[in-house]
Protein: Pre-mRNA-splicing factor SLU7
Amino acid sequence: MFVGIYVIAVGFKSREEHRKQQELEEARKAGLAPAEMDEEGKEINPHIPQYMSSAPWYLNADKPSLKHQRKWKVDPNYTKSWYDRGAKTFQADKYRKGACENCGAMTHKTKLCTERPRKIGAKWTNKNIAPDEKIETFDLDYDGKRDRWNGYDTAKYAEVIKRYEARDEARRNFLKEQQLKKLEKKRNKKIDEEESSDADEEEEDALKHDEAKADESKQMDFSKVEKRVRTTGGGSTGTVRNLRIREDTAKYLLNLDVNSAYYDPKTRSMREDPLPNADPNEKFYAGDNQYRMSGEALEFKKLNIHALQLSEKGQEEVIMQAAPSQAELLFKKYKEAKEKLKKKIQETIMEKYGNAAASVEEIPKELLFGQSEREVEYDRCGRVIKGMELSVPKSKYEEDVYINNHTSVWGSWWKDQQWGYKCCQQTIKNSYCTGVAGIEAAEEAADLIRTNVERHAAASNDRSGPVEEKRFVTWGSDTPEDLVLDREKLAEALKKEDERKKEEKDERKRKYNVQWNDQVTPEEMEAYRMKRIHEDDPMKNLLH
Structure:
């Protein structure tokens, strides 16, 4: 109880002390007051929050320090050394009991021997006893167990540098030899002294600059710019590859109009074309959308759409980001199936209707471009005046083909709204040609029909007497024209027809002793036809 009161009393600060402490912290953050020092004499960053700078109570820290944030418990047994590769210790002269039966070393058994199996082991020959390997054990810490480069000898990389330097030296010597050979050839030609002297001076200048050009390792790579990259780990360096050559104009400077394509400075992207009205052959940049709608980007877009369609249809649950290989394989199978179906439909159509392109003979190479040396003269309206005859348009049907002994084609003759053959004046297609005899016979038949019609008309005009009004049947076309029906008998026949139809609908009312009468009067026939429902009548559903 008293200990708790003491701790509270020590940790208590008055309002004035608290205010002064806050003012001091603000001054330290603003740089007006010196930073606070820790136990080791190092400055403490004033911007570090209090929950990080204040030590736990169980450490009993009297002075401000950041020691509790560091790894201050270090195990001295940990080491950073590594195995001595290939080191040997002792080599015996004769076989020892418990050693490897194959090579004679004491550090491993026969099953773990890495040497080639001998025909007769060292146990029985006592010759060529292998030395013992150096066996080491290390107590590594957490990072030492996971260090990929632990035990790597940096001196080995000097061999790689030496090999590349030798290659560059050989390249420089080869270039010098080539230049010297060219100079010797030009001197042996013995051309004019002035021309040869000028050429020699140029070659000597080239030789002087040869060494500078041959050293490619010292040349500056303008497409690769190294910058310091600040990471969360703190100040690690990295290489940033710039996507634009510094001599080229930046994309946001191509068009300074405010209403032109929008440039996003964070992502360095400009989707639209900054110069839409410029000549496409002269501009090197047409917006980022140009790259998105061409090349492999378009195929990737189709792949995404196919994966989404499969998921929507419920055929297969494919997530493009989780399983890209599966989505690509399904898209490939889909394209193959689509191509097979398209080819199958094409073969079916060609099998049914034929392939007109296959029957056409191969056109000679001389006529592929249709070039000729004929002169053609046109007028102002574009009509041909001289040099080329107008081609007659051809039909898709066969022309000038005469069938069935005809001497003219179908459609060469027209009469009474009908087509026919001109040679025989027949209006029946695919009929056999009768020639002039058929024309004469048709004319004689027409004359005979004409005379009969005139004679019948004259006979009908000669008849006299009152014209009786006749009641013809209302149904049927095979009844005689002079048939007259009795209205009373027709009414009785209509009643009988209604009764007969009622009996057909309800068979229970039909009597057992039925007597059929085969004699049908015209009135009964007319009643049957009047009551009959015609199948093509649009009002048949409204009759009953």
Notes: Residues 246 and 421 are 85 Å apart (CA to CA). The chain has a mean pLDDT of 78. The longest strand covers residues 225-228. The beta strands are 225-228, 237-240, 377-378, 384-386, 413-415, 418-420.
